[in-house]
Amino acid sequence: MVSMNIDEKKTYYLGKFDTGEIYTEFLDEIAIRQINVINGKYFLSSSLEDWNEEFGYLLYDGKKSDLDLSESVSINEENFEKIWFKHISNADVESFIKYEIGDASAPKHSSSLIIHIVNNRGKWGKGFVLALSGKFPDVKTQYLKWSSQKDFNLGEVQFINADKNNGIYVANMLAQDGIRKDYNDKTIYVSYEKLDECLIKVADFALKNRLTIQMPKIGQGLGGGDWSVILQIIKKRLAYKRIHCKIFTIN
């Protein structure tokens, strides 16, 4: 199991140079988002693959402690988010959501985070989880262990390194309160509020570890949720931060 360090915190800096400015968001030692302002043009980045032909790579790939920040100014999260919000369009956000027919439990490439929703009853036995634990048995084992611990609360996320050789992680998101009784049960068991809390944690984990995300249509099956509502939460917490998300459907 991989834990997010609760002592990690976000810090924000503004650096200026002859032709522009750089706004950087750090999670502990790692730069997770960056706004490069060069000759009046704004370039947003949250991936090491972000590249501009004129200026090169757009996200710092070192440790914060290795930088000389003596001439940079510490800013707050609100200032950073205000600029990010102003310069990311709806089209940008939409471009980070892709749909594909297939098995969401099968990683398509290395450095991936598979996310799904689990219930708060400690039950693992229906739906997507069967395919997932069939490929990665430790994901089920760790969830069952977690279900008896004090931090097994709605809104929490358990991160598991399912395949160390290929950098495949799984996020067990605790966002379902109860279990669907049968196909006639129309109760909404997924908590949109707790899913939102989970995805905030997922975004930080994915950005810090340089991961793309894949998932089934979370929360709408056994969770009974409205996909249109869930999709908006995914866009708000993941795609808005330029995290590539691939959503798998059966057909």
From TrEMBL:
- Highest rank taxon of the organism: Bacteria
A GO molecular function for this record?
Answer: DNA helicase activity
Q: Which GO terms describe its biological process?
A: chromatin remodeling; DNA repair
Task: List the InterPro entries.
Answer: ALC1 (IPR031053), Macro_dom-like (IPR043472)
Q: Which UniProt keywords apply?
A: ATP-binding, Nucleotide-binding
Family per similarity comment: Belongs to the SNF2/RAD54 helicase family.
Mind telling me what this protein is named? Appr-1-p processing protein
